[in-house]
Amino acid sequence: MASSTVINGVQGALLVLALLVFLGNIMMWIIMPTDTYYDKWLPHILADTNSTFFGIQGPIMLDFTFPILFIAAVGCIYLHLGKKRTSDSNIASKKGAYKFKFLKRPMIIKGLGIVTLTELALFTMFIALDVWYFSYYVRYWFTQVPLLQMQRHEKVWQTKFDRVAIVFGLAGNVCLTFLFYPVTRGSSILPMLGLTSEGSIKYHMWLGNIAMTLFTIHGSLYITYWTLTHRLSEMLNWDQHNVSNVAGEIGLLCGLSLWMTTYPNIRRKMFELFLYTHYLYIPFIIFFILHIGIGFACIMLPGFYLFVIDRYLRFLQSRQKVRLVSARVLPCETVELNFSKGRDLNYSPTSTMFINVPSISKLQWHPFTVTSNSNLEPDRISVVIKCEGNWTKNLYDLISSPSSLTNRRLEVSVEGPYGPAATNFLRHDMLVMVSGGSGITPFISIIRELIYINSTSQSHNIPKLKLITVFKNSSHLSILDLILPISGIPSSESCTNLDLQVEAYITREKGNPKDKLQTPQTVFFRPKPSDAPIYPTLGPNSWLWLCAIISSSFIVFLVLLGVFTQYIIYPIDQNTNKLYSYPKKALMNMLFICSSIVLMATGAFMWNKKRNSSEAKQILDMEDSVTSESSFGGDERELESLPQQSVIKSINVHYGQRPDLQRILLENKGSSIGVLVSGPKKMRHDVAAICSSGLADNLHFESISFSW
């Protein structure tokens, strides 16, 4: 307890430090468009940071790039310490956990979906920042109108039109600055705030829509301005010492192509088109930097810098083919894939893992919920995949007909798993889990986690569990067979103490089917010796390694940039920022950033890969012996005899009806009822509406659905 108290204190201090640095960074955003910044602050900043090593780019990185990277490094240390805490800390604050529960009360807002009061308040503050940024920059640029109007020999309103057009672009840059944080899957900033990447996708969508709206207005206004002033030839201008119009136009076209495919109907019906066009973010960012210059781009650099680190680490992990050991094929066109993993790989319930099967598509990566438990199944990690599209249908056909596989091996690559830094399900008296179709998968991981806690500790009060699941037909009831793992089953006594009630609703059948339901079939694979178990990309101390990569790569970048500026740029430019080519400087900066990240991340990855090689050989030897034994059907017999009844107190199947969610949720007694929902959009909205209606004060809503 003493060590836990010390760790909590250090974590609290790190959070305060990160918050203070962030508030200072936000203050710079607020003050930047004002006269105070340009007339008083900027001259002093330039005078105090005048350097032949970084030029005018130096103070911008000091004000906007360094603080966020510092917060990311602090976040890594914070999360590493969080892994050291005992499980008691997860329930220590149960009494006060809901003191501010009104901040998490769900609301349904058209265009935004389900949001909490906290999310709405933060979103409103962001819009206020963007409006502030826009209005003050308009005011600042309008002070230059008389001089510019005389120089250009145009009407005053035309010059003002030009100034408004440029401010739309500046406001779009604010959105772009925050755009990449939600999609940085291995981020240290998101979990420090209690967020996950999969749960933050909606923020990325909000920011992306606003950014592209502002950039589209920015580009359209400039084309209109050039037409009105008879200077349409400006569209072909690539200025070496100022803003490049051609680069901006190419970047805008890339952004528009990407943006159009994010329309919900297109994304759902043509997912491959949506996926492939999203790779246009690469030329979009490159031409954006070439358009505005690397100096101003340093304002949005930190978010993209962290994203590039994460993206490269994912690339390194995805190059390794992993050991797919077995699969359970269900009659409802659903399959459970079981991979070998190292014991150092720990993850939380509701985590997700991205999977690529080259024989189906070399470019497509699809996210699936991890259903296994890293404590209950230390050598296995599992995902459940339901046929809901061409890719999943092809995968199911491959696995359900193993004779079609060469040497009974399926080549698979993975990224992840990614999930919350911690979960607090024990703080509730009862958990009500509402799912539709494949939305049941995250709840399987939660149930397995509680089975493990119940089997290892008598000091925790395990909440009662009620699973409300909706299926189209009775064949989907076979998914309930996946609640228990194939291996790592705890004692019967610990299972009996778990209070789990299942209410299954079959919507398209009127009664109990006459035919007996088929049992899941197990398929065993023969992976190559080169196929590796899934390990944490950066080892058991991954957060410390990530902190080292962020810090060291940025230092290497600064060294490369300093040498380049001192010996190449400064002799020509003399810190005027007017003589050396903007595009060359931007391209060299991008090269330095990528080189420093590749160098340091590769070194960290290879060090941990070498460390894992000895354990991989032991796992390989063990799996070979297990596979030879199970080839005679031993595991099938074990699977059929799993003590499901000892875990599930009762299973009530309701045919030809849907659940009365309001009645089910309001009838539960207890001071704290955790309501988790995973499934179709309408189901999530219905549950959120009930929890926010005020009919019961003990309902605490959480949506854990993940959708691209």
From TrEMBL:
Its main location: membrane. Keywords: FAD, Flavoprotein, Membrane, Oxidoreductase, Transmembrane, Transmembrane helix. One of its GO terms (molecular function) is ferric-chelate reductase activity. Residues 317-424 form the FAD-binding FR-type domain. The chain crosses the membrane at residues 12-32, 60-81, 111-134, 164-184, 205-226, 246-266, 278-308, 543-565, 586-607. It is found in: Membrane. It comes from the Eukaryota. One of its GO terms (cellular component) is plasma membrane. It is a multi-pass membrane protein. This is FAD-binding FR-type domain-containing protein. It comes from Fraxinus pennsylvanica.
